[in-house]
Design a protein that fits this description.
homodimer; about 240 residues; alpha/beta; Cobalt-precorrin-4 Transmethylase, domain 1; Methyltransferase, Cobalt-precorrin-4 Transmethylase, Domain 2
Chain lengths: ~240, ~240
Amino acid sequence: MAAGRGRLHGLGVGPGDPELLTLKALRVLREVSVIAYPAPERGASFARSIVAPWIEPHQQEIAIRFPMRPGPIPAAIYDNAAAALAAELDRGRDVALLCQGDPLFYGSFTGIFTRLAGQYGIEIVAGVSSLTACAAAAALPLVSRDEGLAVIPATLDAEQITARLASADIAAIIKLGRHIGKVRRVLDQLGLLGGAICVAHATLPTQQVRPLASVNAEDAVYFSMAFVGHRVPLM
Amino acid sequence: MAAGRGRLHGLGVGPGDPELLTLKALRVLREVSVIAYPAPERGASFARSIVAPWIEPHQQEIAIRFPMRPGPIPAAIYDNAAAALAAELDRGRDVALLCQGDPLFYGSFTGIFTRLAGQYGIEIVAGVSSLTACAAAAALPLVSRDEGLAVIPATLDAEQITARLASADIAAIIKLGRHIGKVRRVLDQLGLLGGAICVAHATLPTQQVRPLASVNAEDAVYFSMAFVGHRVPLM
């Protein structure tokens, strides 16, 4: 790595509550010259909103705008974002790339990290993931002892979801959003809908914890997760 | 809940690096009168060591001593610990129960939470889990897009591990310790050993990231995890 180049930090900023930022993420955030984050095509960035109280006016901001429609993210978005970050790193400026939850747990920035790896120093700062934040919100013992956990994207088809549920003790079905109807049907057929719990907007003021059976498709939000298994919440 | 009772906080203190404590865990830690934590039968508590810089002399400490031998933890340990914490809560004192990583992700304290739930106010503060801390240590894109993740305890038998690996895109095999020989054999038979990465003591000065194929049984430590899939580390 060339001397004088800046360093890229992938910062997990946690699930939403600013207090769930780690001390390390806060320190790095304050030290960098440039702060980059995902944002919708129009409007504010959720990741930025989590750390907004600590961003200083002298810090440069780079919003990486993603289309909100379903489907794969165009490679050009990652190419352009990686180029924009590389330009700052080449100037010797350190960059923090904000990642909701944890950077490597369903983060959208793996595409940027892979484009810059090897050329620049990269550090990943783990964050509180949506998985454990949602379990805490539901006061649900997520997994313990010899139990296996399956994390299953609701974007898979019904057959794949069924197969993955079959080999797990406990499952977390993520990215429910518009797939909630399909997930409810799959769980109902397996006799698992009754005990399933749905958590949305964990750790935010809008947090909701409800039986999945009571959540309709029109209520479903993208940042929601269902827990399936044989557990009873603590509270 | 009776007025005047204390509140129990399950605090995730992260994987080991004190800087991976959340702002919330630090605030609660400083506010409580009593700090409880798991400890071996003899010697120092790892969870306590993570937050040691912030513990004040006026705070009462309760070490909950666990046997280090394999097998189920005797119910009496949870009964006695729950009674000791209940006594403090009844006096109106707030208690923080320190949990390595995240309290609900293979935490040893579910047994205490369940004994006190309903009688006392309990709050769980999610922490950075070993799962994402180990992925960050290995700079390994853990899971993204439509990929499913299986978290598999190495304590399961070879047949169960094989079945769970079959239905996942990516797997994290946890609690390797003395089971590493079995896990290596299972992965070798499936042709998955070559790409598997082993992470031990993530985020600590003793952190190790190595190909699993190079880790022998005598080197294996309890707090280690293997990642299995078709990924290449970023760095």
